[in-house]
Amino acid sequence: MQVEGSSAIVVGGTGGLGQATVRRLHAAGAKVVIADVNDEKGKELEEELGVRYVNTDAGDEDSVSAAIAEAQSLAPLRISVDCHGGPAGGGRLVGKDGSAMPLEAFTKTIQSYLTSTFNVMRLAAAAIAQQDPFDEEGSRGVIINTASIAGYEGQIGQLPYAAAKGGVIGMTLVAARDLSPLGIRVNTIAPGTILTPAYGKAGDQLEAYWGPQVPHPKRMGRPNEYATLVASIVENDYLNGEVIRLDGALRFPPK
Question: Which of 113, 161, 199, 226 is catalytic?
Answer without folding.
Answer: 161
